[in-house]
Structures are given as C-alpha cells and as structure tokens.
Hints:
Structural class: alpha+beta
Oligomer: single chain
Amino acid sequence: MCEDTSLFENDAQGHEFRLSLVDLRYFNPRTAEWEKTQNVELSSGKASTVAFKSKIFGTFSADMLLLPPDTIDFSAVFLNFAERLRSNPYALTVILCLWAILILIAIGLRRMDIQDEALVTIIQWNYLPLVDNNPWNTAGYYMTVSTALRSSRNLTSTPYFNMVGSEGDTGARILNDGVRKNFRRGTTSHFYMTTPSHLGNLKRMTVWHDNEGTSPKWLLAKIVVQDLTDNKRYAFVCGKWMALDREDGKVWKRLKAQDEQTIDSHLLFSELSLRQMFDDNLWFSISTRPHFSRFNRVQRLWTIGALLFLSMIVSAMFYNTPAGKENSIKMGPFTFSYKQVYVGFVAAVLAVIPAFAIMTVFRKRSFRYEERLELSSSTSGGEKAKPARRLPWWTIFIAYGLVVAAILSSSMFVFLYSLDWGPDITLQWLLAFFIGTLQSVAIIEPLKAVALAGVFTFCFSRGGRKSLVDVPAAPKPTVVKEYDIPIEKQWHNSSIPDPEDVQEISEIDKNGDRLKLDRRLSQKLKTWSVYIGYVMLILILCSHNFIEVSYRQSSYLKSTLEPKTKIGKVDDIWTWFDEVFIPKVFPKYSYNGRIRVSYLQKFCDDEYLYRMGLVRIRQVRSNEKCKTFEKFVGYVKCTADYSTSTEETREFCKGWKPYSDTCFNENDDIDYTFKYFTSEDTEAVITNGEHAIYGSGGYYIDIGPKQSAAFRSIADLRTHGWINNNTRAVFVTFMGYNGNSNIFSYVNVLFELPPFGGITVDMHVSSANLYPYNTAWDYIVLFCQLIFIVVVIVRLVLLVKNGVVTKGKVLCTLTFWATLFDITVCVVAIVCYIIRLDGTITAVDKIAKNPRQHVSIELASVMDSAYLAAIGVVCFNAIISLLSPLTFNYHFHLFKVFLCLSRNTLLSLCVGQAIVLVAFATVVYMFFNMDQWELRNMYSTLLFLYRVALGMFKVKHGIKFLDASGILIFTIFGVCVSVITINLFVSILNDAFGHAQVAVKKNKKHQFDTELNKFLYWKLGNFLQALTMSCGKTSTDAMSKYTAPEEETSDRLQRIQTMKSFENFVFNKAADVACHEQQLLRTYLNWSRRLPKKSHLLSTCSTNTDETTITYYDRSSNFTLALVFPTAVSNQDVLVHDMDVIKAKMRNLYPCDKSSVPLSKMFKVKTNAKLRKKNSVQVLVVDTKPTNLPELPAFIVSSHDMGKTWEATAASPASRVTLKHSPCVSAMIRACPTHLMAISCELWPNVPDHCMDRLEMHTISPGGGTIRLRCNNRVVIAADKHSVDEDVDICVLEEEWSPAPIITITATEDIARPLILSIPLNMLDRGENPKELIILVKEGDLKWQKAPCKAFKEHGSIIFTINHLNRRVAKKILVKRSEMKMNLSATAIPDHYLRTAVTAVCNSKLSRKWRYLGKSLGIPVIYLDCVDRNNAPLCSEEKCSFVLHEWCVRNPEVTVKDLDKCLQKLGFPQINRLEKYI
C-alpha cells in the first residue's frame, strides 16, 4: 500500500469547512476507459487539491462535480495588510468610486422626488376634469393617455378626440385639463371626462390635434378608458405618429376599442414587452416615471446599487478557477475567457433574487398616514373595487436595511477577496464584473422583459389583458372640481376644428404632397441604408480572412511535399517519407550543408513555417471478412473493401500478429502503432476520400521532433510491415504556423490503397488566419463580429415574433423561408467560427505546455472551411438583397415583378429538366461506365451531362470513342435538353416578361411608383445643381408641383385663415371681458355648453311611447324643421345646419332644374351611421313660399350620400299641415338623410301639352305581369311576382326622341321593388355601336343623372332595370348618344395622353364639380351658364366634357401635367389615381 500526498500542503490553517463532491477514478489500459475501483480511496482534501491512497500503480484523476464558493485566507490577508493594499488598491478604488457616484446621483434624484411630491400636491397624477365638461352631465369616465418615449419633448399642439359608443358619442372634445402640461415624452396623463348620458359599450375613438406650434408631432402610445358606470375598461392602442412628415402623414387616427376579451396576442405581446422593458425596468425608469408609483427615484437608485454590489460579491465568491487552466483571448492589457462570461452570468442571476425582495417591499408598502379609498359604481350593477393589499408603512426601514447590509457587506468581502487574490486576478475579476453588469443591462433585462411578456401573453393571458387595460391609481382620492379651472381656460366645443379640415389646412400650409413624397423617399432610403450597412458589415467580416495569402502558402506547401515520382506501390510511400517528407518537414542541414541550430530545426525547410508538435501517421484498415468464389476457396485470399462495418478495430502485435499479453511491450512505441485508437484519442474527423469515406479512428504513430527520430520511426514501421494488403488509407498530418503572415497551415496527405490495386494520393493543405486577434484592426473586426451576432439575434427574434403574431400564416410565404435560411446560415457561421477559435486556442495552449506532442487542428480546419462557406453564402444573400431597394429604377422593378410572376413556371421547368437529365444519365452510365473515367459513377455522369448541356466542352473531348448507339443517345440528349428545353425556357421568359409589363401598369400589387421615381431624380438634380453652383431655375416645370408655393394660395385657405383669425379675435376679447365679469361669463358659458355649435339649429325633443319628435328653430327662435323618428332618439344625436339656396347653388348642392320653386332652405343633417340605417323618418319643413305664387305640388328632395345623388318624395295636399302656427310640407322618406329641402313644381315638369294626349293608365297587380303601351307596343314594362303588395296604378307617357323615345312614369303609390323596362332603338344609325349610348334618369324637376343600372341590347331594344318609383314623382328615362364621344374625340383633343386623362376625369366623381373645375381652368362664367341652362338633357359627365373640351380648344398647348397641376391645386386626386375610370 502506498500513500500519495505530494499534492497536499502542510501549512496550518484555521478551522474552515468546504463542501465538495469528488469523483476518483483510474485508467484501465486494457479497456481504455476510466473506471472506479476499491483499490483507490480518498484520504483528505484541501482547497483545490486532494490526497488519496492506492494499492496499485497507474494513472489517476479526480474531478470536482460541485463548484463551491471560494474562501478567504484571513490570516494571510491581515498578516501583511498594508503591503497588500499598496500593491492592490484597484477593488477599493472601484468601491469608493461607486459609493461616490451613488451618493451624487441620489442627491439629484432626491430633488426630482421632491418635485414629484409637489406635483402630487397640485394633482400631477390625479384625474383632472376636462375643460369642456358640463356640470349637468351624469356619466363619468377615467382616461389615461400614454405618450411614447420617442414623441416630442413638449407637445405644442392641442389634442382632440371623439369617442363613439353603442348608445352615442361624445362629439368633438378637447383633451386638456387647463392646469397641467400634458403629453410630454414618456409620460402618462390622467383625465376625468363627463357626458350627458351613458355611451354604452365603447366602439372606437378618433384622436387628432391642430398641428400648431414648434413641436406638434405626437406619438400616442395608447388611451385607456374606465367607464365609472359599470367599471369596464377599454384600451385604444395607437403606437403611431400623428404628424405630416411621419408614417402615413396624418394628424388624426381612428382607434378601435379593445377590452379584456378582444385584445389580440400581437397587441398584448407588444404592450407587455414595452412595459417590462421600460416602465418596470430599474435602469430605464430612474429619470422618468410614466405614472404615479410608490417606488420613487432614490429607492430605485439604491436598489440598483444593492444589485451591483450583490453582483460583485457573488462573482467574487465563484471566481476561483486557477489561472491558466481555461482558454482565453488576450487583447492588450485585457484577457477574455469563458470563465469571465460564466461568472458574470451567475452573478447577475443570483443577485436578482435579493434585489427582487427589496423592490417588492418598496413597491408594495403603504404610506404612513394613507387613507384608503373604496370606489364603487353609481349604478346598481356596478362593481365594488377592493382596496389594494399593501405592506405596513414601517417595512420601508426593512428595505433600506437590506440595501445598506447588501452594500456594506459586499464591499467589505470584495475588498478582502481582492487582497487575497493579488493585483492580476483582481483586474481580471473587475473585467468579469463589468461583463456581468453589461450582461444584466443588455441581455438579462431585455430577455426577462420578453420572457415575461411571452409568459403573460400565452400562459397567463387573462392576467396580461387585465393589466393592459388597468387604469393607474391616483395618489390622492380627491378630484379637482370643475369650477376650480380658471374661467379664461374653459373651452367652447364650437371652436374645435374638424380632423379632415386640420389635415387639409396643414397639408396646404406645409406643402403636403412634397412632405408625403419626402416621407416615402426617406423610408426607402433608410431601408437602403440598412441594407448597405449590413453588406458593409459582412464584407468587413469576409475581408478578415486572408484568402490570397492562405492560397499562396498552401500552394507552396503542396509543391514542397509533391512526390518526385508516381506512387504506385507501398515501397513508393516509404521512399516518399525518406526522400521528400522527412527532409522537408524535419530539416537538419541548411542550404550550404551546415547543420542547423536547434531553434531552426523546429521549422520546415523554408525556415518560415514553424512545425507545431509532432507529425502523426495514421492508417485505417479493413478486416478479412469477405467471401470469394467457391471454386477459389483456399487458393485466393481476399480482403474486404473499407466501410464502417468492415473496419478493423482489433489490437495486434508487431507484424499484425494476433494480440497476446506476452508479445506486447508497453515500453516500446512501435507496439502501440498496432493498437486501435478511437476518434477521441486520434482527435481526427471523418475524411471523404476518392474511393471511400474513412472514419476518424485507426492505428497511428507520432514521429519527431528530430530528423533522426523520424527516420528511425519510419524504418521501424517499414521493417514490421505496418502498411500491408489490409491497409486502405494512410494519413500523414501535421500543423504549421507562419509568424510572418500569421497563418496556420494544416497538412493532410492521404494515400488510398483500394482493393482493386494502385495507390491514389490526395494532398490537402488548409491555411487560414485561425487566431485573428493581434492588431488594432483585429479589434475593430471583433467589434463588427459582436454587432453581427446582435443583428442575427434581433432578426431571429423578429422572425419568431412575426410567426407568432400571424399565427403561422407567414409560414406559407417564400420570404419567411428565405429569411429563415439566411438566419440559419448566419448561425452556422457563428457556431463554426467559435468552434474554430476554441480549437485553435486549445492547440496553441497544448503546444505552449508541451511541444513534444502531436496537436491536431483538423476540426478547426474543417470548421474554418465551413465558416468560409457559410459567411460566403451570407455575403451573397446580403449583396443580392441590394436589388430590392434598387426598385426605384423601372427596369429593376420590372425584373423583380418578372421573377415574382415566373418563379413557379421556372421551378417546374427546372424539375422537368432535372428528371430528363437523370434519365439520360442512367442510360449513359450503363453504356459507357466501363471505358470512361468521366462516367465512373452516377454522380460523375450527371456532372458530365450537365456540363455538356451547358456547352462547357464537347462530347468527343470527354469520350474517346463513340459508336452508332452512343451517337444516337447523345443526339437525342442534345435535342431534348439543349434545343427543346432552351426554347421552352426562352418562351417562358418572353411570356412572363409580357405579363410583367402588363402587371406593372395595371396591377396595384406590382405597380411601379412613377411619381416617387421622378421625385427622386428631381431631388438628385437639385443636389447636383447645388454642388455645381449653377444659376437659373432650381426646378423644372414638370416638377414644379414638388416646390413649395410662394405666392399662390387657394381661396379656401384664405377664407379659412380669415375666419380663424376672426374667431381668435372674438375669443380673446371675450377672455378679456371675463377677467372683470367672471361670474357673469361663467353663467353664460355654462348655458352655452348646452347649445350646439354656432352653425347648428337650436332643437327641442319630445318623446312618447311610439315616436320621438325633434323640433328645430333658427337663431331668431322661429320654427323651421321637425323630424319624427319611430324610435327613441336624443336631439344631441341629430344636429341640423341650415343653408341659403343661393349658397347651396354656389357649392353645387342645389339639385333642381329651373322649373321648380324652393319652399325652404337647404338643411344638412349630421348624425351617426347607425341612425341612418334605421326605419323611415317623417319630415316637416316650414313652407316659406310667398303667397302671390301659384299653388303647385310640393316635394321633399333628399340626399343620403352627402349630395352625390338625390331623390324626390311627393307631399300630398293632405300632408300640408300646420305646426306651431306655421304651414309645413310633410313627407315620409326612407331613412334619415344627409341633406334635404322642400320644393314645388308641376307634376309633369317640362312635358309639352301636345304630348299629354299620349298619356296612358295601367295597373300593376301583386301577381306581376307585363305591360305594353298602346301607342307603342314595343315599349314594355315588366314586374315580377310580389313587386307590389296591392294594385298600384301607374301613368306612362311616351315622347319621341332619337335614337329611343323618352318614357315618363308616375305611380300612385311607392314601388320599392325593381321594374324591368324595354325601350326600342328606332333610329340607331347604321354601324353605330349601342355601347356608346347612355341612360339618363330624371326624377321630377331634379337634374339629369346617369342611371345606376346595367343594360343590354336584344332584338333592337335596350333592356334595363328601374330600381324604385316614388309616389307621385314623375321619373323620366332617356336613352341617348353621349356627348362625350364628340367632345373627347381625337379631332377635338389630338394628344392621346391628354385625351385619356380628360376621359378619366369626366368618368370619375370629379365630374359632379364641373362648374368649380371650369372656374379654376379659366373658363368664362357665361360659357358655364350656357352649358348649365342648355335645354338638352345632359348629365354631369357630359357637362364636364364640354368644359374640358373648351379648355383644350382655348389652350392648344396644354398637357397632362397642366391638368394634374390644376387638380392638385383644387385638392382633387391626381390623374394616376383615376386609372379605373379610363
């Protein structure tokens, strides 16, 4: 028995205890494994050493499975305390600096906390009422408005909103309390809003601002609303800019309400991630707090301090790995290792637990004299809010005690650890601590935020949704009363601008078209910049591989080791060792014949390549398990081909004799060459040879380090027949380093001995910069590599998020898989680089410790090749991605569309070609495989035929002899592959290119952005013009629309600005008077709040069980209008404006012709869309007709689409009633209209007297049927079954007209269901196309309109549908030739593009404003009046064609750009947006 105590230290120590789990094993040479045995027992252990007792001799190892904290040698520290402190003051300096920084920052943060307390006193975080709240309102809501961190620092514009619910809306309201400065960057503002009645379930909200001031841009995060009636909470999430020069360029947003049940996963994940990342993050929430919190800034700072010091002590406790035992990278004075990353990570994780306890106490504790408020709803169904459970107020002392204890104890022990370690380890530990802190801030905290957001989103979605719509609590229960707001700050909702008006005015003021183009162009350029930056990053990484230098070094080594003669047998291999390899790799003599010094003998023959370690010769063998032909058994001996199943793994004695204990001499190195070793011992990788794939195990010997030792080893191997018939491959490997180029070279010479005879030599030399961090440029590349890793992680996170958000729908797109492939290749490149670097560092460390051993960097070499391939693919993808931003150019965009449209067809063609190629390869392989080297296997045959198909070389150059069958096969192959396939490919390209050209012009998905392209070149031209200092115009006429207008300002803008100035003047005067008469003005304002806007009519509402009557009065309190609804409606829901008839005519809203007389003003009705879809409404309009006019039938003319189309409803004589002592015209219309007025006209307007003799009376019954006119039996009116509920009489009148008669129909009752009308085409000219005819309809004395129906020609008649007939309203139907054909002919407008643009304008909705367009184009008013008063039936489209034709005649040089400029000046859409009307 022997006792090994050589590692045990004898110096005395105090009683110290340390828990370690030690695993003790010995190496069994027979099994080549580490085994446990009872012959070895653990004796004692201390620190990092152990002592054990053994009954046997051998090799032993001990592994510590549990890494315990390190201990401090207090006796050594205090024995020489002063000297240790002088030599190692680094830790103490860092601790004192941290203390000073924390104290200084705490002073500043304390002042901010005092300001916060003062703000709490003036209700900074309380729910203040809006300035336009009405004291008589009954319903209340809490509103929490969150402004994003990237918003303007101080918002100067004024926000407004309109909230819509199921039972009504708030109307336009101002989002201001008149006390605080709200909507600062990264803050949350709280408001209390009241409404006259409960809005029901909230549906949506429109938010906008007036775009005033120096910083009007607003990035709204979200608005959370709590309904105090039923305690429901709604979230209106925005997250978008409201600014002219950001995103969509709009200053208003329409947000959809989402409660706890309707919040989707995408929204929930994004909001929770932002909250965890910023609001709940210690590092980011010190400077600003979004809303009231009990966890103030000073407490957050000291919690961070405790977290830092806890991280320090934890990292010091586990920083006990002895120096020099781990792989590291040295950069200047710093050394980076895996241990530093590991210790930093462990410290950051373990320090979070006590820090979390401190944060919990600070967040959950109550104030000392806090009063708790229990909120309950005002309704019986309201929920009662439970008071929050909080810790006692005195627990704050426990939290501060934990902070002080953590900081002081950590500081003391860290200081003692540093004295025990010494200066070198202390500096390394400080670097590890710095890395751990960076990991905590940059990695752990963001990952924690994303992880918690994911957990709450997918596992605890209910709690996450509840927290998302949670309304933050106020610090005080009191709420400021309405009357505490200064009188001059109280607001009239009548002065709130409309969001669309604000948008239009802002775009006119700031040249909105140019801002939109600038915004779109900047987005494109940002994308392009990102692509270019990413490409530059990849190119920097690729440039760090010295490929040219590596190639030259590899070429030199190959030429140096090239055999002098061809190797065809085993003796040639030994000759190569003796004459080439050993003299070149182990040189002994210089070029002049002198013996080299010992130092130079470590280099190869060129004295530049340093030989790292010994040279390894390895072979793989096949066993004799093969079977020959039965007749030759006993005569012929065979050996199997090499494979994983036939590989020899047995152990042998010298000369490949069977193994026995007597023949094996463990002290002779040659005996070990006949012993099999696994891949773990050889440190090799699988090799793909020409004849087989060889494994990584085998039999090996290491030769060197001197030439004599190498010759002796080779001689011994040759003597004992180490290479024989069973040898299938011999590997000769070694590693070298060139200090001049910093290039490592791995040499692998492979000799293959196939079973069919001969020897194949393959010399593989791989040279690379495997240890790249030496110069300053290398550090820059390292920084770029870290950026690349971050970019890959961000791309992967975004890709996963996109997949989760779309619920897997993105998996069906090609873009997703292309991005996933690119990210996968990036990850492969990163992993290969790390493995390569680790393998190189390991090899260098081994050589530094023991140069007399073989070191393999084969794995590092393979990983380097894989890394180069992966980074090459990444670089290829990055450069190809530059084509995407280049779609500014039309040809690049066309190429992109072409690839998109033809990818499926091209893929099918490639698959078909591959099938044909495989089929021919099979035939060719079977015909010629015995004679031709190029056709030795199926893979080579495929490659050969593919090269022939591409025309890389001729068949006769590859195949020496071709018979008739061979010529026939290759002829068919050439026809099928080279002729037919190429023609198909060209045909597919032509067809796809044609489709791409059409798609670019007509398909919106692939449409080319011509306007943005022109704008880009215009800006480039201006930039180049500015660089060359050229004079003259800065912009061409074609691009003048992009320049800001200097003198031209629209009339509408001037009117709006004048009205705005007048309103501001009046309001300022009222505010000045209010300073002296506050009480009087307060009473007036409270009364005016109940009034509608200044342009609204005053209204009263009366409701009974069946209906609701709303009566409207003008400004003189005279009765004007009454609306009777069949349901309960509030007068606040239906607002009515009045407009003079003259003003309506100026605005092109007057719908009637010259035969009618207006009986009232024009009324504009404003209500919600839901009310417009309800049942019919009775209208009573006061008759203001002078008494001297004759009595004519009265009609109510109404529009339901903002004046685009009109319909007339007859008022019978019995409907002329008297209401409130005023004669009224009454009618029942189908729904609540947008515009209405009363008129009077003849029952058959504009019908000659002689035509009244042709009037016919017919009856339509519920059974349906067909009616033919007696005067013209080709005029047919058909009614389906149940078209009417009872018999209805109709009067039909026919007037002669060309090419078809005019039909006038009047019904005694309303006919809501369609009727089919067939009118003969009597006078259609020969060759005239019926498609050039149009159908016009005129109800009563309304203007002619195009019929909204489809028609078709059959047997000389035109057949179409009449949608409805109103009672006693004459409806005229006319089929006529369109005047547009003559006005827009090629003779009238020769320019094709201008004629096309004019046609699009006439066919679009812009034609309804033909008079306004004519004035803008400079057409005289006399001409416009002539067009309007023309007795011929003309619709608005035809009138617009007359106007534009006159403009083209007066201005023969006008172009499309001039028309486009005029349309943009009027605020109309551009020409390119009217394609569908061509």
